[in-house]
Amino acid sequence: MGYIPQQSLENLKKYSYKGVDKSIISRYVLNPFWTWFVTLWPLSVAPNTITLTGLAIVFFNFFTMIYYDPMYLTEKGGAEGPPQWIYFTWALGLFAYQSLDAIDGKQARRTGMAGPLGEMFDHGCDAMNTTLEVILASQALNLGRSWWTVASQIATLANFYLTTWEEYHTGQLYLGVCSGPVEGILMIVAIYTITGFYGPSFWDQKFFTVTRLDHISFLHKLPNLPLNESFMVFGAFGMAFNIISSYINVRRATKAAGKPSVRPLLLLLPFVVAASIQIAWLSQPEFNNSAIINSATFVPFLCAWGLQFAHQVGRMILAHVTSTPFPRWDWIWIWSIIGAVDANLPHLLGRAPIIQTSLRNTTIFVYLTLTISFLVYARFCTLVINDITNYLGIACFTVRRKDEHGVWRHKEVPTVDEKRS
């Protein structure tokens, strides 16, 4: 018996991708480029191979941060920052990821491989990229190990969760006039580029001072925040706009289907619960210098959080493509709950933690959490890919399909004339 029940597998053949992209930049600038760019790829290359290539570039960017700034992961004092030229490679790498992520669907249609597997694979890679870019962007913005970085993680994951939640209830992926996969990524590319020219300290300058608005009298009542913190505030307004827009779309879809329009809001609670567990763990009273946010365990903690989130939204997408109930609980949270409760025993029971009694023990526990989170997500991906490919008779990384005799054959790609007809 596989991971996906048989009755749910049968719904895979009914699935068809639907998407709406209202971005002006995407329509008039990027899409013509993507349409040309996909023609450079041979039809023998599977769409998921393109997606995985993009994620590999992001991982390379992440490893360059670790290589050129090892203090970020080894010393409590924090990071010194990589050489400025590295930020240009991050900008190029993220733009390459965006481009490859955009053309995998076009390649799927070119090769006749469009389907639920591509949807699952694409969203899984996007989910992992989200946390990695939070860490890289926070480094470029000179936020370092701080609650601003945590706020950035929450806001970014929340936007991703909202999009997935919206797609589950409306049946289509909706990207508005300003979305994370388009404008959001381009803003981060711009941040990397600016940091490459001026260095991370550029973002510590005051917003009103840099924009020369400090001479306006009524603005004196507002705090003159640094550029990096101002960017976080701007992101908070963007998240509020996305929440409202997503709910309007869900409300419209549920009303059209004759379903309750308030009940879907309850399905936002799983994200609130998951994020609250992580915040509670980070909010631990410092005992023997064991506070995560002030130590070298901060980055692996964020990575573990990101993998748990990827598992959560992966199950949401699986529920979408198989038309099954929305997942409300994820058992991997139990591990983080143990960490949060143990870290807060001084507040809860007035006694020292049992596990995280020192910085060394905290580090071991956080890396163990990272390992378990990785194994759980890797198991989920492996089992789901295996079930879908076996049921649909397709390959994940090659353009092949099983014939009526169960023999693997390279898929016959229709010619341009056949597609037009």
From TrEMBL:
PROSITE patterns listed in its UniProt record: CDP_ALCOHOL_P_TRANSF (PS00379)
Entry keywords, A to Z: Membrane, Transferase, Transmembrane, Transmembrane helix
Gene Ontology cellular component terms for the protein in this record: endomembrane system; membrane
Localization per Swiss-Prot or TrEMBL: Endomembrane system
EC code(s) of this entry: 2.7.8.2
Topology within the bilayer: Multi-pass membrane protein
Membrane-spanning intervals of the chain: 49-68, 173-194, 231-250, 262-281, 287-310, 331-349, 364-385
Pathway the protein contributes to: Phospholipid metabolism; phosphatidylcholine biosynthesis; phosphatidylcholine from phosphocholine: step 2/2
Cofactor: Mg(2+)
Primary localization class, coarse: membrane
Catalyzed chemical reaction(s): CDP-N,N-dimethylethanolamine + a 1,2-diacyl-sn-glycerol = a 1,2-diacyl-sn-glycero-3-phospho-N,N-dimethylethanolamine + CMP + H(+)
Pfam families listed in its UniProt record: CDP-OH_P_transf (PF01066)
Gene Ontology molecular function terms on file: diacylglycerol cholinephosphotransferase activity
Recorded family membership: Belongs to the CDP-alcohol phosphatidyltransferase class-I family.
Name this polypeptide is given: diacylglycerol cholinephosphotransferase
Organism encoding this protein: Collybia nuda
Taxonomic lineage from the root: Eukaryota, Fungi, Dikarya, Basidiomycota, Agaricomycotina
